[in-house]
Design brief:
This protein has 434 residues and is α/β, with parallel strands linked by helices. The protein is built from 13 helices and 14 strands. Helix 2 packs across helix 9 and helix 11 runs antiparallel to helix 12.
Length: 434
């Protein structure tokens, strides 16, 4: 073409969670039955929406207003409802103007990073959730900046590593945290959150906290919303209904914005996000109308409590299986519905394999494992040998070798088989080259 039309950062747009699907589908064509442990969709794994929530949505579908455009920032009554939810926590006191709706948090993340000045960087956790890390890297054209989460310390942020990177890199304008965390299942206590807020205050940067799993916390831990402790620091929290109702197909998420009136640069940046949404007119209408009716229903808290107990049981079940396996490190999840398994240093090599019965599948896998990360090599062999599809940890902007599984399978027998099969394969794989 007469000029180069490629965006400088397009090569950073990777999403291993779905990219592994392409490999799995090719194996399906070779006759392999796939067990999907790659994506966090509760519905596809068998969870059923409570009848009373479906009834509310069904009633809304019959109303003409739910087929129309709504205000760019979102339905006023819904934003007022959500602002009151923020205010009831204590801390920052929000108004409807502090709530902005998007077509899912993927849309929000794309705009949050896409409308930052290119030279302004946001540092995030490693392992990283791919949507955040890819969007941040793409906007800058450079690799995503990260601070370490420590599996030896319940996947807590390495605050010394974080501060050193912020202190000595003047391009860092924002700090991202995910609480509860994906892909590790970690939940940050008050002390850690307060230190991260203090760091943002001292270095004059803004905060982004992904709180999509905020109401999925278990195993006796407690945490806080960013709004409760942010004080005067500019920032935003990301919320949604995809994991909580759950209704992932609604593509409905929103951001809570804090202290936009106290910093003129931050206020203009927020305005750019709203203007970008204005060009699309608005976000999806129907799910916005449902939020006050569902979340305001007296049955909603019990709905959340039931789901917390379910995920707590599954997290403990998975940990019991994997904690007995030599050569790996696994931390019991405390929130969200994921668990990361880390191989110990120097435990993986290029000689390890798993037995694959089908010659065609074996040939396919052996071609795929050439020149890939050591954990992806294991993931491909696991996929070819058992059909179980997990996500390599190096796909989460991470140098540690391991993989992520979900806690979503509703079939008790299949879920236990999945854990035990993976555990057995780890042992067999590690032993195969020794």
């Amino acid at each position: 073409m007469r000029i180069n039309i490629e965006h400088v950062g397009w090569g950073h747009l990777t999403y291993e969670i779905r990219e592994i699907v392409t490999v799995a589908q090719e194996l399906m064509n070779l006759g392999v039955a796939i067990t999907w442990e790659n994506i966090g969709d509760p519905i596809l794994k068998g969870e059923r929406i409570p009848r009373w929530i479906k009834d509310i949505i069904a009633q809304l579908v019959s109303q003409d207003k739910t087929y129309a455009y709504v205000a760019t920032q979102g339905i006023l009554e819904t934003r007022e409802f959500l602002a009151e939810q923020v205010n009831q926590r204590g801390g920052y006191q929000a108004t409807a103007d502090d709530i902005v709706f998007f077509n899912g948090l993927g849309d929000a993340v794309a705009k949050i990073f896409g409308f930052l000045k290119r030279e302004a960087r946001v540092i995030g956790p490693s392992p990283a959730y791919s949507t955040h890390s890819s969007a941040e890297a793409a906007h800058s054209g450079y690799d995503h900046l990260t601070y370490d989460l420590d599996p030896e310390n319940k996947w807590m942020p390495d605050l010394e590593d974080l501060e050193n990177k912020v202190k000595y890199n003047d391009s860092i304008a924002g700090l991202l945290l995910i609480n509860p965390d994906n892909p590790t299942g970690a939940v940050y206590p008050r002390s850690v959150l307060e230190k991260m807020v203090d760091l943002a205050r001292r270095y004059d940067i803004f905060l982004i906290c992904d709180e999509i799993y905020a109401n999925i916390v278990y195993n006796g831990v407690e945490t806080l919303h960013l709004s409760e402790i942010i004080g005067e620091v500019p920032g935003m929290a990301l919320q949604g209904i995809s994991k909580e109702f759950p209704w992932p197909g609604s593509r409905c998420g929103w951001i809570e914005i804090f202290n936009q009136g106290t910093n003129s640069e931050f206020k203009r940046y927020v305005r750019s996000l709203i203007n970008a949404k204005m060009l699309e007119v608005c976000s999806t209408s129907l799910p916005q109308y449902s939020i006050p009716l569902v979340m305001g229903d007296p049955r909603y808290q019990e709905h959340l409590n039931i789901r917390r107990k379910i995920f707590e049981y599954r997290a403990n079940e998975a940990w019991e299986v994997f904690s007995k396996v030599e050569g790996i490190n696994v931390v019991k999840p405390q929130g969200a519905f994921y668990m990361s398994v880390v191989f110990k240093d120097d435990i993986l090599n290029e000689k390890q394999t798993l037995p694959i019965e089908s010659p065609e599948v074996k040939e396919f896998v052996e071609k795929r494992v050439e020149c890939v990360e050591a954990d992806k090599r294991f993931v491909y062999y696991l996929l070819g040998a058992t059909g179980i599809c997990v996500v390599p940890l190096t796909g989460f902007c991470c140098t540690r070798k391991g993989f992520r599984v979900t806690l979503l399978e509703t079939d008790d027998k299949k879920r236990k088989w999945t854990w035990e099969t993976i555990a057995g394969c780890i042992e067999e794989y590690i032993a195969s080259a020794w």
